[in-house]
From TrEMBL:
Species this protein is from: Methylomonas koyamae
GO molecular function, one term: rRNA binding
CDD domains, per the entry: YjeQ_EngC (cd01854)
Subunit structure: Monomer. Associates with 30S ribosomal subunit, binds 16S rRNA.
UniProt name for this protein: Small ribosomal subunit biogenesis GTPase RsgA
NCBIfam families assigned to the protein according to its UniProt record, in alphabetical order: ribosome small subunit-dependent GTPase A
E.C. number: 3.6.1.-
Cofactor requirement: Zn(2+)
Superkingdom to which the source organism belongs: Bacteria
Stored SUPFAM superfamilies: Nucleic acid-binding proteins (SSF50249), P-loop containing nucleoside triphosphate hydrolases (SSF52540)
Cell compartments where the protein resides: Cytoplasm
Details of cofactor binding: Binds 1 zinc ion per subunit.
Length: 299
């Protein structure tokens, strides 16, 4: 009987799951025990080796965070585990989607995941109103990193903040997530090595999630499927809590189950009307609330 080892899930492949052992050998291709929950990139697992290159995942170690995406019906599926930070990437072009930004931030606030903002393409002029709207977020404690992936501006500072943590870039298509990943992983061989070590066991499709070790320290999870994650699994109350500046007001609403919409003596709405909470943020909250799937009846 082979001894149990611990490892880190670095890629999800059609034929199995690539797990890195703690001794820097190439990843091992693993199958999972049928009874196990979904194993995702970033998971730490217990496995047994059947050969130096093949193994079986026996257990998933406890996660410190899980990122979900919506699945069929009202379900949600885990897509990444043990993330420390989500970096929401924005740019002047395509236009900043503040509704999407707020959605990401609300998910992170409720998932034990830090969130930062990256403003990419700072080589292009940014309209003053967009700039002002963006600069509201640091007042809530979200750091804002101005960069240009193409011009290599702010990249080493960004690399520094990515150290000692597992991160993921989120954002709409075209904002520069791939360009940033390339700027941070300039050594093509570094990327190709991980991939080829894994893909000799089977085709590594571009849609597969992959965890990269950054040369300056830290891990970056690249997963096209999670670039836009939804409000999967969030309740209405959690959405409101995900608006950080609402938090001190929520306890002051007259009703415990206040929806913060038309409810009598809602402290959140009152604060928005009084300008203590930016009206734009409150309006986006109302919009996201309407986009939420109806709560499941649960039997
Ligand atoms: N002007 C400018 N364009 C950029 C910058 N970074 C990326 N782009 C361009 O933005 C487009 C989309 O980039 P990409 O990395 O594919 O975005 P993704 O869809 O988020 O992965 C490409 O044409 C890039 O060349 C930048 O710093 N400045
Ligand atoms: Mg891309
Ligand atoms: Zn309220």
């Amino acid at each position: 009987m082979s001894a149990q080892r611990e490892g880190l899930v670095v890629a999800h492949l059609g034929k199995g799951i690539a797990v890195e052992l703690d001794d820097a050998t190439p990843p091992v291709l693993c199958q999972t025990l049928r009874k196990l929950d979904t194993v995702v990139v970033g998971d730490r697992v217990k496995l047994t080796l059947s050969s130096p290159e093949q193994g079986r995942i026996e257990a998933i170690l406890p996660r410190r965070s899980t990122l979900f995406r919506p699945a069929r019906g009202n379900e949600s599926r885990p897509v990444a585990a043990n993330l420390d930070s989500v970096y929401v990437v924005l740019a002047v072009e395509p236009a900043c989607d503040f509704l999407l930004l707020d959605q990401y931030l609300a998910v992170c606030e409720n998932s034990n995941i830090d969130a930062d903002l990256i403003l990419n393409k700072i080589d292009l002029p940014l309209p003053a109103d967009i700039d002002a709207e963006l600069h509201y977020y640091p007042t809530l404690g979200y750091r804002l990193h101005p960069v240009s992936a193409n011009r290599q501006i702010g990249i080493s500072e960004l690399a520094h903040t990515l150290q000692n943590r597992a991160s993921l870039f989120a954002g709409q298509s075209g904002v520069g997530k791939s360009s940033l990943t390339n700027a941070l992983l300039p050594d093509k061989t570094l990327r190709t090595n991980t991939i080829s070590a894994i893909s000799k066991h089977g085709r590594h499709t571009t849609t597969a999630a992959t965890l990269y070790h950054l040369p300056g320290g830290g891990d970056l999870i690249d997963s096209p499927g999670v670039a836009i994650f939804g409000l999967a699994g969030l309740t209405e109350a959690q959405l409101a809590w995900g608006y950080r500046e609402f938090q001190p007001y929520i306890a002051r609403c007259r009703f415990n189950d206040c929806k913060h919409v038309t409810d009598k003596d809602c402290a959140v709405r009152a604060a928005a009307e009084a300008g203590e909470i930016p009206l734009a943020r409150y309006r986006r909250f109302l919009k996201l609330r309407e986009k939420m799937p109806p709560p499941s009846r649960g039997g």
